[in-house]
Amino acid sequence: NARISNRTWPRYQSMRRFFKPVLQMADAIFAQSAADRARYVDLGAIPARVHLSGNLKYDASVNTAPVSITSFGAEQVWIAASTVAPGESSKYRHNVDEDDIILDVFQQLAPQFPKLLLILAPRQPSRFDVVAQKLSGANISFLRRTDAIKMQTDCDLTLPGVLLLDTVGELAGAFSLADLVFVGGSIAPRGGHNILEPAAAGVPIIIGTHMENFEAITRDFVEADAILQGKSAADLEPSVVYRLRSWEQATLLGSNARQIVERN
Fold first, then answer.
1. Tens digit of pLDDT for each residue in 158-216?
2. Which long-range contacts (CB under 8 A, 24 or more apart) does 85-91 make?
């Protein structure tokens, strides 16, 4: 499943003489895309041993069984998946707080969509308590998923409201509930997160510009009109509004996304 991103390619080129003898030791290299294959050959790999296999992440994106989560009578369900915080790791230093962006957009949407449910899933479990404090401080109606599980009864949530998905392993199964999904790590310069699980569920997807970790996949989706990619954080609110109001367009976007996954 080999790849070399646009971001790291110049560094690999500058160290070509170190990589060439190592790459020539490989019996086989299976590259994600034609561009990746060309880069490995350019670095010194033996051309006959470098094969184009496609992206194996498509094979791992099989439909997940839905999670038993109530939608509290919502007419619109928006999932913000894998949102990231400032300085999430030493590799990605930035000051963008995607949770703040999402909550700001939610508060703009609330008057327009009184039956809106936002399912907010921060990327890092260490952020669950922090985001809960943000919700409480903003006087937003919310419920923690872990609290709902502990109660073992049907919990109530006043809409418009937020379900904080403070669990691990339930996100993929929640996508089937959504009318729209924003995939995080893409407004913040984090390189993006995997869009294939919501795509496999046939859900329309919105992303930001930073999808460096999934360049080939993102290109496939953009070219097939299967995803909406904003240019900045300011594009998120109008993009969400448009998709929630334009049901036919949203359905087509989700259908195109699922077809890409099935085709690959």
1. 999 999 999 999 999 999 999 999 999 999 999 999 999 999 999 999 999 999 888 88
2. 85/122, 85/123, 85/124, 85/127, 85/130, 86/188, 88/123, 88/124, 88/188, 88/190
